[in-house]
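Researcher: We plan to redesign the surface later, but first we want a full-length starting point. Tokens attached.
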């Protein structure tokens, strides 16, 4: 089970990394007359997900008005223990999703250093 989960994360990270590299190539092609090198483009495109998603990993900036945290009638009928289990699972999913973006950004940074 754990090995399958690691494989899923690896595939997601690889796909996001490829997406960011393709975006970098597109930006570099569109701005080829500006003097911006591919290495610079890769660096900045890799920096964006690191900056955006690391904030979400290390800080909790949500509030009670966030629609993702509105309690439905079915959730209100659950015991506090069941709600706690669901909240923990939700936080884990958000953190792992944000972590895949940060790792993909770091991989794009690495590619920019090797170019």
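Model: Full-length starting sequence:
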């Amino acid at each position: 089970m754990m090995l399958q989960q690691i494989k899923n994360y690896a595939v997601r990270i690889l796909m996001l990394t490829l997406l960011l590299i393709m975006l970098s190539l597109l930006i570099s092609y569109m701005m080829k007359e500006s003097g911006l090198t591919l290495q610079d483009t890769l660096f900045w495109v890799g920096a964006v997900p690191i900056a955006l998603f690391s904030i979400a990993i290390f800080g909790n900036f949500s509030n009670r008005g966030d629609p993702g945290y509105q309690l439905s009638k079915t959730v209100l009928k659950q015991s506090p223990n069941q709600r706690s289990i669901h909240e923990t699972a939700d936080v884990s999913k958000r953190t792992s999703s944000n972590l895949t973006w940060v790792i993909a950004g770091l991989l794009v940074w690495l590619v920019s250093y090797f170019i």
